[in-house]
Each structure stands twice: as structure tokens, then as C-alpha cells.
Amino acid sequence: MTIKRVAVVGAGLAGLTCARELTQAGLDVIVFEKSRGVGGRLSTRRVDWATFDHGTQYFTARDPVFMDWISGLMALDIVSQWSPVMSKPNPAEPWYVANPGMNSLARAQAKDLNVVPNTRVSAIQWQGSQWQLAFEEAATEIAHDTAADTAPETTFDAVVVAVPNEQAVPLLQPHRAEWAASLAAIALLPCWTVMLSTEPVASTLQAGQPKSGPIGWWARNDSKPDRSKNERQQDWVIQANSTWTEQHLNADKAVVIGELQKALLAQLGVAQMVNTQTAMAHRWLYARRTPGLATLGLSLWHAQQRLGVCGDGLTHSRVEQAFLSGRDVAMSILNERS
Ligand SMILES: Cc1cc2nc3c(=O)[nH]c(=O)nc-3n(C[C@H](O)[C@H](O)[C@H](O)COP(=O)(O)OP(=O)(O)OC[C@H]3O[C@@H](n4cnc5c(N)ncnc54)[C@H](O)[C@@H]3O)c2cc1C
User: How far is the CA of 82 from the centre of ligand 1 (A)?
Assistant: First the structure.
């Protein structure tokens, strides 16, 4: 059977990259996303006084295809290099960020794609020759394919699941139990993230990756290119390491903010910082893959079932891997057609 209509579950970079490749090849693709916007963990929190990249901090580019895409976005000023001042010299490998927030990388990839937001896929069901999607929100109205005057856009020739491992498991379990088991064995670890705006502190440091204490990473968000600059304010993102996050998983946000801000003071070597705005905390339940576990291949594709899986959870929790994974499953689908 020729695959013409594909549903992608999840509008993170993996799902969007898959959808873009397939759409460009002429397939009819719909991306279903449970959140309001695209990007998943490539996220930017916008408030009146600042923006904060509270998920992905920066990314590297090693694969030529990914670098090619990034070079194109650099020419459009959507991506820039970022070399923060750190206590240790920066690695030789360039660090890239998207402008004016990390979310812009996903938005670039989503341009002109058919993305249905606020729609959580609760199940995928095989109906003999096609996939039928079920949605959590019973009231969700999915547009009908009036042009073709055929089935509503909830039936598809193929489905690609592009969500964090834990969220993929219930969707895959009834159809490919062994995939579900493999993904269930690879937990994505949680991460508490704190966002602060403060009066300027007497430190020139702009980012750090402490080897001890609660913090895994911290950065002055306003040191990234194309972020709003204010000489009376500095904007900080503090990310706890997974051990500390697991120990404080259900802690009050106020406690998390207090503890991580105290730890940041020690990193900066300053006695105090004066908050200019309410501090915020965000808990990522599924942030990054447990390091050191075996990879499952760039993506999974089952030709008879016309079912695929992509995302960073299969290999490494890096932006580049999400891109390559989405592209890989799209190539498998396109190979079916040739
Ligand atoms: C705190 C943090 C820091 C990070 N730092 C870095 C870094 O510095 N450098 C780096 O390279 N990488 C970093 N990463 C990892 C990077 O963000 C990920 O590897 C990448 O964004 C994963 O993309 P993805 O498309 O696979 O998944 P996601 O971005 O998680 O996208 C999955 C999407 O699926 C949606 N979804 C889930 N379930 C459903 C459902 N049932 N129905 C519909 N939609 C659904 C979600 O809302 C989400 O939008 C970080 C991640 C976090 C959380």
C-alpha cells in the first residue's frame, strides 16, 4: 500500500523534522501536539520583563546534514554561536543558540506544517487497514478532509510517535510490546529549573556546569545573543542535576527556588543577589535520557504495521539527535514508496 497520509504525535524537533521531510516529499502530514505551541523541550518562557530558555540551553552540531540546516538558519539570524564567560575555558566545539529564544529553532522547522495544538493523542488504534487516532479531549474537533471528501483526518496510513519515552509507552504497548518495553527501560530523568531576574551582581561569569552541589547547569540568559538587555537587570536560568531533582521531586517551588539560588550565589562567589521580579520554577519530569544506557538506533520503523518512533529518547538527549531521529524515520517511510 502506498503511504499517503501520516500522523505524527508530538511537535518537538524530532516530530517536526519528520513531518517536514514527509511534507516536502508530497505526503499529507498532520502533527498532533498536546501543548499550546510547538517545540517541546526546546522551550522559551516569555514574561513581561524577560525571556528564559528553561529547557534546552544550547546545542552542538556534528552531523553534516544537521550542520547544513543550522548554517541556513544562521544566515537568517535564527541561530547564532554563543560563547559565555565560564570559569573553565569553553570547549573547542562551537555552542549554538536559537534567537530570540531556543523555541525559535522549532518554530522554523514548523513553518507551513499542519500542526494541531492542544490535542493529546490518547491512543492509536489499528482498524484493519488504517490507523485511527483517539484524543484525550473528547471535544477536540479535527478538521475534515473536505477536499477529498473522504474519511475525517483522524485516520492515517502510517503513524509516527515522537514523544518522550514514558509517554510513548502506552501508545505503543498494544501494537509493539517489545518497543514499549525497550523504551520503558530507558527513563528520561527529571530536572528542576529556576528562572530569576535580579539586580546586576559583581561577577563576570555567564555560565557554569558545577561538578558538585545541586546545580547541573546555570547561565545568564541575557548573555545569549538577541535577548532583551537591561543594564539594571540580569536574567538567570538554574538547572538542578537529576540526583537533586529526584530528591526534591515534590518539593514546594519556593523551596526549590531558595535552594538553587543559594547554590548559584556560591558559584558566582557573591554574598547576595536582589531579585527584581518574582522568581519562577519549572519541573521537567522527562528532561534527559539516563546517560550510559544502550541506544535503540536512530529511529524505529515497522513496515507492515506502518508504525514509527523517533525522538532523543532512542539515542542521546541532544537537539541534534532529535533532528536526526526525525529525519531517519521519515527516510524509512519514503523508502517504502520507492
Ligand atoms: C532541562 C533540559 C535541558 C536540556 N539541555 C540541552 C542542551 O543544553 N543541549 C541539547 O542538545 N539538548 C538539551 N536538552 C535535550 C533536548 O531538549 C532534547 O533532546 C530535544 O529537545 C528532544 O526533542 P524531541 O522532539 O525528541 O522531544 P520533545 O521536545 O520532548 O517533544 C515531544 C513533544 O510531544 C508532545 N507530546 C507528548 N505526549 C503527547 C501526546 N500523547 N499527544 C500529543 N503530543 C504529545 C510534547 O508536548 C512535546 O511537545 C535538554 C532538555 C531539558 C528538558
Answer: 21
Matching fold, domains 5-36+117-186+292-337 and 188-289: no
Q: Is the pTM of this model over 0.85?
A: yes
DSSP assignment of 45-72 equals: EEETTEEE--S---B---SHHHHHHHHH
Pocket perturbation via mutation, ligand 1, pick of 34, 35, 36, 41 by most ligand atoms within 8 A of CB = 41
Quick one: fold of 5-36+117-186+292-337? Answer: FAD/NAD(P)-binding domain (3.50.50)
Name residues whose C-beta falls within 8 Å of residue 327's C-beta, 6 or more positions apart in sequence.
17, 18, 21, 65
List residues near ligand 1 (CB under 6 A).
Answer: 9-15, 32-35, 40-42, 55-59, 120-121, 162-164, 167, 191, 193, 239, 284, 287-288, 311-312, 317-319, 322
Q: Which atom of ligand 1 is nearest to the CA of 38?
A: 49
In the chain, domain spans: 5-36+117-186+292-337, 188-289
Question: Which residue's alpha carbon is nearest to atom 21 within ligand 1?
Answer: 41
pLDDT tens per residue across span 261-276: 999 999 999 999 999 8
- Is the domain defined by 188-289 classed in CATH 3.90.660.10? yes
Average pLDDT, the chain: 93
Condensed to tens digits (0 to 9), the pLDDT of residues 170-224 reads: 999 999 999 999 999 998 999 999 999 999 999 999 999 999 999 999 999 999 9
Sheet holding 307-309, edge to edge: 115-116, 28-32, 5-9, 158-161, 307-309, 300-302
Q: Output the pLDDT for position 150.
A: 43
Cell numbers that stand for 5 in this block: 497520509
